[in-house]
Amino acid sequence: MNVRRINWPIWTGLLLSLFAFISYFAIFVSYPATRDFPWANLILFVAALALLALGLKRVFIRDRSKISKVVASIVAALAVLVFGLFVFNFFVVGRWLPSSQGAPHVGQKAPDFTLPDTSNKQFTLNELLSSPINGRSPKGVLLIFYRGYW
After folding, report:
1. CA separation for the pair 131, 144 (Å, rounded)
2. Could you tell me if residue 90 is inside a domain?
3. How many CB atoms lie within 10 A of CB 72?
C-alpha cells in the first residue's frame, strides 16, 4: 500500500520564512538589539532554508511524483523569494534613506542648548564645559541621543 505523506519540512520552511519576514516588523523592530541588525530574523531564515533544503532532498531523492516535485520547487522558490525580499528591504533600501542634513557629525562642536536637569534646574552646554568638576575643568561632554519614542 502506497501511503502519501505530506512533505512537512518544505511547508514548515515556508511558514518559518513568512514568520521571519513578518516578525521583524511586528515584533523585533521594537527592540534596539534586533532593530539595528536583524540577527534574530536571519537565524529564523537560516532555519527556514535548512528545512527547505531537507524538504527538497526528500522530494528529489525519493521516488516522488512529478507534481510533488513541482509543488515543492514552487514552495521553496516562494520561501527564498521572501528571504530575498527581506534582505533587499533591510540592507539595500535602508541605504537609500537620506541622511539628516542638520545633524552634527562625530567630532563636530555641538550648538549650545538649554535643558532642565532631574531637579528641573536649567543648565546650558557652555555651563557644563566651563564649570569645574572635582577641581578640574572638563575637556568635553558626552551627548547621547535616543531615537525612537516612549
Report:
1. 20
2. yes
3. 22
Q: How far is CA 113 from CA 60, 134, 138, 140, in A?
A: 67, 24, 17, 15
Q: What is the CA radius of gyration of the chain?
A: 26
Average pLDDT over the chain, rounded to an integer = 87
Domain assignment present for residue 78? The answer is: yes
- pLDDT over 70, % of the chain: 93
Cα 109-113-100 angle, rounded to 5 deg: 60
Q: What is the count of structural domains for the chain? A: 1
Q: Is 109 part of a structural domain of the chain?
A: no
- At 127, list the grid cell: 555651563
Each residue's pLDDT tens digit, 67-100 = 989 999 999 999 999 999 999 999 999 888 887 7
Residue 26 forms part of a structural domain: yes
Q: Are 34 and 40 in contact (CB under 8 A)?
A: yes
